[in-house]
Amino acid sequence: MKFGGTSVATAERWQTIGKLAASRRAEGVRVLVVVSALAGVTDALKALSAEMDGGKRKHAAAAIAERHHALAIDMGIELPARVAERLESLAHLAADGPAAGQELAWQAQVQAHGELLSSAMGAAFLSAQHLPTTWVDSRDCLKAVALPNQNERTRLLSAMVEATPDAALQARLAGQGEVFIAQGFIARDDAERTVLLGRGGSDTSAAYFGALLKAARVEIWTDVAGMFSANPRQVPGARLLKRLDYLEAQEIASTGAKVLHPRCLSPLREPRVPLLIKDTNRPELDGTEIGPHLREAVTSVKAISTRKGITLVSMESVGMWQQVGFLSDVFNQFTKHGLSVDLIGSAETNVTVSLDPTENLLDSDAVAALAADLAKVCRVKVIAPCAAVTLVGRGMRSMLHELSSVLAEFGQLRVHLISQSSNNLNLTFVVDEDVVDELLPRLHELLLRSGSLRSDDDVQFGPTWQALYGRGEAQMVPGWWRGERQRLMNLAAERSPRYVYHLPTILERARSLKTLDAVDQCYYAVKANTHPQILKALAAEGLGLESVSPGELQAIDQAVPADTPRLFTPNFARREDYVTALATSASVTLDALHPIEQWGEVFAGHAIMLRVDLGRGLGHHEKVRTGGSSSKFGLPIEHLGRFIECAERHNVRIKGLHAHLGSGILDAAHWGEVYGQLAALADRIGSVEILNIGGGLGVPSHPGEQPLDMIELNRVLSEVKATYPQYKLWMEPGRYLVAESGVLLSRVTQLKAKGEVRYLGTDAGMHNLIRPALYDAWHEIVNLSRLDDAGTTLYQVVGPICESGDVLGNDRRLPETHEGDVMLIAQAGAYGAVMASHYNLRDAADEIVIE
Ligand SMILES: *Cc1c(COP(=O)(O)O)cnc(C)c1O
Fold first, then answer.
1. Residue 331 to residues 65, 148, 352, 353: CA-CA distances in angstroms?
2. Reduced to 3 states, what is the DSSP secondary structure of residue 337?
3. Any long-range contacts for 533-541 (C-beta under 8 Å, 24+ apart)?
4. Which of 141, 264, 386, 802 is labelled catalytic?
């Protein structure tokens, strides 16, 4: 168990250490505690050892002595004899100063006192607390090895230890007691000199001890529960990483995470000793476990990290590229200037490398000198400051297809270098430094939303940082169906597959839309779900209904009172469809030049809405984006003049403008921008009274995704409405109202194992719910018959259709499942039943609304 400087600074914190060590003892294991110096003492010793003035050094040593006397009083113990001895030797070292030529060895000796003192204080305190604790000198256990590329400074102040399991040491300690305390940061070399381990020293000591003793595990106790999927200071929604293998953890530690020094993982890999990161203040939290984990885990991006201060050196060949030895000449220059290279990208005529500031003592002089030398063999460009953005996860190559939204984000930036590590663990993008702070939260959200960071797998991912440490987490509300299990089981027993819609949930969403003060009329886009009871209920709540076909208009007519406001917003509809719609009370929307140019007489004397294309699309999947020239919707702005001419010619009044950019948008600012853009266009037309800003209000599906902030949306809309108050504001959400209300119930038909893959077959398939196949949509899937059982097995959840794409859920961790179990697919209320087909001549799922 390793504890850092703040954890050993007060008697109260030592109480905690005592409790934690005793709880491990109670598990029947022996405990070795590794400690750092009291907070601030290492820095004080460093300053002391850099001080030339003997008097000032003595003064500094006295202040350090004072700290330890004060702690003894705080602990309620006599100053331990071992501490008194150490303080005395420190006083001598300070008074004498280094002997000539021995400066580095003297420095190491001075700085080693911090840990020697704190551990001796701890041994005395814990023993006084009825936890007999044996003090161990780490220097008797950790042997530094001299490596050929190390200079004297590195050997003394940043030493390496050869740590292979040591049976003799294990036996020696076993004979001495049950609880031990030792120092982090220090070791001894072949010449019997005290040496230091350098940065991350105490963590590394704990790892060395873990390997030497072949410990059951190493626990690093710190002020946070572990590693997160992104830096939680920048991304409060970052998820705790519960399980990582050594290489993944090392990759995350080396590409940004500060919790653990990357050096401390390699000693543990070979002896397969697991390492646990735990929060000293919240020991009940899971923490991060790093170990030799089985590769059975769901393939997932684990983390995204950023490193700033990256310098790129781009080298353009001047005609000598194919020559033998060219690269070797180039890289020799890096060696000569003491600069180590991190990432490499190469092309026919260019090699670009990054210099990592954590590895290089980078100053601009060194880089300038390098550039001057390189200029003799090639054209050099130094690009700085840059930042590296790294995605980490085992099997990165197999996830590339899921990363399209993330890659698209980089498509809008200047990317200097892309590097995919040869161990298939990371993918790195080097961009300008000033964009990363804003980029990181967005990329994390995209990783969640695209399902490439599998936050649904609770074996790998824990709660968000915000849920653990933040205030007032906007937690995802558990689905209504969790409280209706028996009722749903009964419904599934009657008929299967079966859609069940929960009316109270729909009404709740309708009411939350009413909190949008700036909206004058809300329409429900009925194509999301045309069940007549739902249309009735929403009309009764005061919503209008939006339709896109004569069939939908008819469904509306049959379900709701004649005075319910309605919209007709088709796309590439037939001439007679408009004729039909114009004969009803519906507001008709045109979204092209063709109808008004070719069939102007159809619209003569009518007032219409005009749907425009604002030039960009948004949404959760490429197939639901309805703006931009790659989408077939809307009148391109450059046709607006001609449209107005035709409208005037046929006495058609443009009473409103409309835009709908896509589905599944979770960013409240979007609708404000649309309103602003439409208002600016409306001013050009003159006759416009209404601005319809579309639907597309998203519903989070992956655990941890942030829901649309309705309070923020209200604020955004009220603000733009205040700027352009002359227009009526309409909206037309579909998915938002009904998605969460619906579940698809099915029964398990067959199970099959094929190689390592387990298939779970249900009587529902892509003919009932096509969203997973069409949009890669992620729907939560649970075994309702075994709702309280832990997930143990990874399943491919599939349907009965003769298509390989008939997969409802990929790699779902579920309880061991049996034929006849009832499976529930959540968030199936929107674009579920309405998109069903009769493919394979299989029946449609039954639909039922419950109150
Ligand atoms: C589909 C559609 C909507 C509703 O989209 P959601 O993402 O379900 O909110 C709104 N307006 C138009 C024109 C549509 O085609």
1. 50, 20, 12, 10
2. coil
3. 533/501, 533/503, 533/849, 534/501, 534/503, 534/506, 534/738, 534/849, 535/559, 535/560, 536/560, 537/503, 537/506, 537/507, 538/506, 538/510, 538/737, 539/564, 541/507, 541/510, 541/511, 541/514
4. 802
Q: Is the CB of 526 within 6 Å of ligand 1?
A: no
Ligand 1 within 6 A of CB of 694 = yes
* Ligand 1 atom 3, closest CA: 695
Cα separation of 316 and 352, whole Å?
8
CA 787 to centroid of ligand 1, rounded, Å: 34
**Which ligand 1 atom sits closest to the C-alpha of 626?**
15
Q: What number does CATH give the domain 570-731?
A: 3.20.20.10
Q: Is 802 a catalytic residue?
A: yes
CA 734 to chain centre: 28
Atom of ligand 1 nearest to the CA of 733: 9
**625 alpha carbon to ligand 1 midpoint, in Å?**
10
Of 618, 309, 296, whose CA–CA distance to 449 is shortest? 618
**Fold (topology level) of 739-850:** Lyase, Ornithine Decarboxylase; Chain A, domain 1 (2.40.37)
At the topology level, CATH places domain 2-216 in Carbamate kinase (3.40.1160)
Ligand 1 lined by 734 (C-beta under 6 Å):
yes
Q: What is the pLDDT of residues 64-82, one digit of tens each?
A: 999 999 999 999 999 999 9
pTM of the model: 0.75
Kindly give the distance from the C-alpha atom of residue 675 to the centroid of ligand 1, in angstroms, as a whole number: 16
Domain boundaries, given as residue ranges, for the chain: 2-216, 303-453, 570-731, 739-850
Instruction: Assess whether the C-beta atom of 660 lies below 6 angstroms from ligand 1.
Output: yes
> Are the beta carbons of 333 and 313 closer than 8 angstroms?
no
Q: Where are the beta strands (DSSP E) in 732-843?
A: 742-754, 757-762, 781-783, 793-798, 807-814, 822-825
The residue whose CB lies within 8 Å of the most ligand 1 atoms, and thus the one to mutate among 529, 708, 735, 831, is: 735
Q: Does domain 303-453 have CATH number 3.60.21.10?
A: no
Would the CB of 525 count as within 6 Å of ligand 1?
A: yes
**DSSP 8-state assignment for residue 708:** P
Cα 417–chain centre separation: 22
**627 within ligand 1 shell (Cβ under 6 A):** no
Catalogue the long-range contacts made by 358-365 (C-beta closer than 8 Å, 24 or more residues apart).
Answer: 358/307, 362/309, 362/311
**Contact 732 CB / ligand 1 (< 6 Å):** yes
What is the Cα–Cα distance from 674 to 661, expressed in whole angstroms?
9
Q: What is the pLDDT of residues 89-132, one digit of tens each?
A: 999 999 999 998 899 999 999 999 999 999 999 999 999 998 99
Ligand 1, pocket-test mutation among 660, 699, 775, 834, most atoms within 8 A of CB:
660
Q: Which of 670, 568, 559, 639 is nearest to 609 (CA)?
A: 568
Is residue 320 pLDDT above 80, yes or no? Answer: no
Question: What single DSSP character describes residue 616?
Answer: -
CA distances from 136 to 38, 124, 209, 807 (A): 18, 12, 12, 58
Dist. CA 313–CA 374, nearest whole Å: 10
- Tell me the pLDDT tens digit for each residue of 614-673: 877 666 677 777 777 778 999 999 999 999 999 999 999 999 999 998 888 888 888 999
Q: How many angstroms is it from 273 CA to the middle of ligand 1?
A: 54
Nearest ligand 1 atom to alpha carbon 664: 7
DSSP 3-state of 18: helix
Is the Cβ–Cβ distance between 591 and 637 less than 8 Å?
Answer: no
Mutate to test the pocket of ligand 1, among 523, 546, 547 (most ligand atoms within 8 A of CB): 546
Q: Which CA distances in Å does 441 have to 445, 470, 687, 750?
A: 6, 16, 42, 42
**Is any atom of ligand 1 closer than 6 Å to the C-beta of 497?**
no
Which sign does the torsion angle of CA 512, 513, 517, 521 carry? negative
Three-state DSSP state, 743? strand
